[in-house]
Amino acid sequence: MEKSQAREYIEFIEGYADFLEKAAQCEKEKYAALLSYDRTRTEKVVSEQQVMNMKISELEERRSALQQRMGCSLLTSSQIAKMLETDDRSRLEDALKKFESNINTIKYFNRKSLLFVNEGLGMLNAGIEKQSITYGSDGRRPDDSLHSPLFEKEI
Q1: Could you list the pLDDT tens digit for every one of the 155 residues in the chain?
Q2: CA dist 49 to 91, 127, 147, Å?
Q3: Please, what's the b/e burial string for 139-152 (b: 16 or more CB within 10 A of its CB; e: otherwise)?
Q4: What is the Cα–Cα distance from 17 to 102, expressed in whole angstroms?
Q5: What's the 3-state SS for the chain?
Q6: What is d(CA 69, CA 125) in angstroms, rounded to the nearest whole number?
Q7: What residues have CB less than 8 Å from 39, skipping those under 6 apart?
Q8: Residue 96 burial (10 A CB sphere; 0-12, 13-18, 19+)
Q9: pTM to 2 decimals?
Q10: Which of 21, 11, 153 is nearest to 98 (CA)?
Q11: In the prediction, which pLDDT does 155 show?
């Protein structure tokens, strides 16, 4: 691997890590929006997250292509770092630490968001089950039903 290729890769990973920092912030904002129960805010943040996800896919494709050009397509970024000279190695390792930290932050807040949403859906489902219409053996609902017995009236 040429020194210019190594520098290009390091700069790319640094930029990718910076972008992931923004994505992590977006994930935090999504969680905060969910907790706020503000539909408009949540829709805005989810839309922004979709854009972030597309950008991450694009960055992954570019990283893969760059590693392919370098002849390192089967290596991890950590393995590539071990092949570099000391200055470049420490610079790439620092970028990879930032990269990993941002990924972990994204995963953490995504997991919290999913738990929150799933709990909310569970409560909704429990409420729906409570309100479900039950009929007795005589074909009528009990008198304590909250629903109108419209179809049970004799005309």
Answers
A1: 788 888 999 999 999 999 999 999 999 999 999 999 888 999 999 999 999 999 999 999 999 999 999 999 899 999 999 998 889 999 999 999 999 999 999 999 999 998 988 887 766 666 555 555 565 666 666 555 455 555 554 44
A2: 29, 30, 41
A3: eebeeeeeeeeeee
A4: 7
A5: CCHHHHHHHHHHHHHHHHHHHHHHHHHHHHHHHHHHCCHHHHHHHHHHHHHHHHHHHHHHHHHHHHHHHHCCCCCCHHHHHHCCCHHHHHHHHHHHHHHHHHHHHHHHHHHHHHHHHHHHHHHHHHHHHHCCCCCCCCCCCCCCCCCCCHHHCCC
A6: 52
A7: none
A8: buried
A9: 0.74
A10: 21
A11: 47
Amino acid letter, 35: L
Q: Which two tokens stand for residue 41?
A: 């805010």
Place of tokens 């995963």: 107
Query: Residue 133, Cα to own-chain centre: how many angstroms?
Result: 37
What pLDDT is stored for residue 99 in this prediction? 96
User: Residue 148 corresponds to which amino acid?
Assistant: S
